[in-house]
Structures
1.
Amino acid sequence: MAWNWKKWKKGVGEMSFLEHLEELRWHIIRSILAIVILMVIAFLFKNFIFDTIILAPKEPVFITNRLLCALGHIVNTDLLCLNTHPFNLISIKMAGQLTTHIAVSMVAGLILAFPYILWEFWRFLQPALHSNEQKQTRGAVLTASLLFFAGVLFGYFLLSPLSIHFLTRYEVSSDVTNQINIRSYIGTLSSICLATGLIFELPIITFFLTKIGLVTPKFMKKYRKHSIVVIVVLSAIITPPDVFSQILVCFPLIFLYEISINISKRVLKKKEKEHADFMKDNNTENTSK
């Protein structure tokens, strides 16, 4: 489709509703194609994806486990030595390992394609913005991508080892033996990483909500205490039920919330300045007439 970007930019005429849908369809198709390509690449690198990335946090030699254990030796406690007893994962279905391989490849493709997906949807939305709005939101895709990957890495390197240690060591009775299914293990790992990746998008979400007038710094300050309660609840949902993990998640989320308040302040000040300049120009124009 020779699309209507030039038509829009030159002001020849706005796109119809059906043309918008057609354009959106092509953006979605290209995003899905990027996910599929990266999924195939992840599928081919099976050993690296599973042995080096997915299964690493359960091993004592994983960097987080080693660093925490070293810290434990310094403060003279063994409580910080995580995952010191490696365990085997099981697959209870004949095609279990194959379907797990495909599912993991899909998740990997989605995570790797996230910046491109954002960029595609940004290209769709960009023509609807004024030139000054386009300047203000320049770099939004890069910032959102960096925040997402920062959240994924936070979940992978900090929360995952703690979750694995707690959930695999917890027992209701010594007569019950834990035999962890690989799908259960990967589901826990991926949900933690994706959840923290999305939660780390809070500053970007705040930016756009302030732009459209749904959020103000005053509103965020007023409900700061309520937000902390929500953060604690979210932390409890995405982490195992131990206090240390929840605190570990709460601190960066509270920090992101405070950053979001400052971002909202800056956006609101800019909007007020633009409105004042607009009114001043209108008054000057009316006076000259």
Note: Residues 96 and 201 are 34 Å apart (CA to CA).
2.
Amino acid sequence: MSALTSRVALVTGASRGIGKSIALALASAGADIAVNYNSNSAAAKSICEQIRAKGGNALPVQADVSKTQDVDRLVSTIERELGPPTILVNNAGIAELLPAEKVTEEIFERYLRVNLTSMFLVSQRVIPGMRAAHWGRIINLSSIAAQTGGIIGPHYAASKAGILGLTRSYALQLAKDGITANAIAPGLIETDMAAGVPTDVRKTIPAEMVGSPDEVAQVAVLLAENKMITGQTININGGRYIT
């Protein structure tokens, strides 16, 4: 029996990349998985089929987590079909390389809404269930850009930096309820989003290698299983940023 057996985990943006790897890893650790997706239903259903083929339990649920009504429908569906989520992995997000002068107010606000406000909305919706269970894990996907500024642009860096503050506040306020909150800040990971990163940026990684989504997933499982790690930012960047 794993520490996560029969726990219900919601992974947002789980139809590909890091979210997909985390969903599969949590399922392997025994959790029941709600695979959230925005538009790629075929990919989400495929992931659920992979989990079920190995004896796990999984549910694909469409929702735009930047919209309050969608979030409420998402969590209500999971509560009805699987039970209240006590593991939340806030992974959904967007990224587009833009120079500062091209970042408009509209773009900036959109990134805050999709990358940061979405995490607040989903967290607020599931926290009551975690409190009732006196057990919960909130795992937020940030980025090395929150710490270094990154190369994508101020719109992205600001949204990812806000995640760190949100995570620490939840950690402090929810610890007495048996709920931990942590952030993962990946560097360059081999995903669709990283495909366009210039070669010269890749050469700045001291480890001289790019990370894999599975390596991020390993950390997510650790954070889900551990009751004492809270309020932390776990860096997975090959030495490109060292605290």
Note: The two ends are 36 Å apart (CA to CA).
3.
Amino acid sequence: MKRNGARRAVLVRSLLCLVAAAGVVVTAPATAALATPSPSSVEAQIDTQWNQLEQIIEQYNDVHTKLISNQAQLKKLNDQLTPLQVQVDVALSSVRGLATDAYKQGSPSAVSAMLMSGSTNQLTDKLTLLDQLARHQQTQIAGVAQLRDKYAQSKDQLQVLTNSIAARDADLAQRKSAINTKITALQKLRIQAYGASGQDQGPLRIGPCPVTYTNDQGGKAARKACSLIGKPYVFGAAGPDSYDCSSLTMAAWASVGVSLTHYTGDQWNEGAPVSRGDLQPGDLVFYFPGSLHHVAIYIGGGEVVHAPHTGDHVRMAVMDNVGPIAGYRRPGS
């Protein structure tokens, strides 16, 4: 009996060990599933999504720039139409005056002029005057017709422009809404990895900025970009408190009097091509061949300053670590 009891005790202990082991096996995967994703895995997701998203943002910048240009043209047309309408009104008033006089007095004729004349010379003079009045009336009418045509043409152009702006405005509203939704999702991923601040706690400066000092336009533009390190990334922003990638380079070069468009695609065409071996501080480095949806400013030593993406800040980076390089341009050349 003692032996049987001992055997049962051993069996019970063995079963308990197996149950405990089974519990570990069952619960271990659940614990792993709840683990916070690593920063590197989240950044990989962000990079993938952001490379798609930034193309949309740069399209937004392009359309928005065109919208501003169209609005300026619309204002210019409005400014032109106001005095034009005044000229039309004055001309019409003059013609109405001539018509009223003719209605009240009757059309002048050679016969009435002859009756009123005292001599042949006076008749000739009055006939000449009547001819001049008739020519003046015809000129007034022709002038009014031309003004009317010009007014109608300008009005048509204004209507086409207004319709175009309205379509762009609607498109921008949809794009902005979609972008904001995606940015919110990306920011949540960052918070998971980095905490409430939602940003990498690594240094924004990785050394002297600019790395290479030059006192030309490019060097000064590079120093301006360095002075903006730490400013938050906000898509579509153009400073002075926040920037996106193309507005950062735009602001840097604006500081030395060189105008760039707030769109990477246009900036690619607004500078002279340079080779990698000829890079100088201030040159623009474009990324992602085919789409050109990211741009940085070279600061020497193989490093750049750029505005990476939402949740991040303007920062220094090793040029080759930002992404696949599409080419280099030198503004102001």
Note: Confidence is low (pLDDT under 50) at residues 1-34, 196-201.
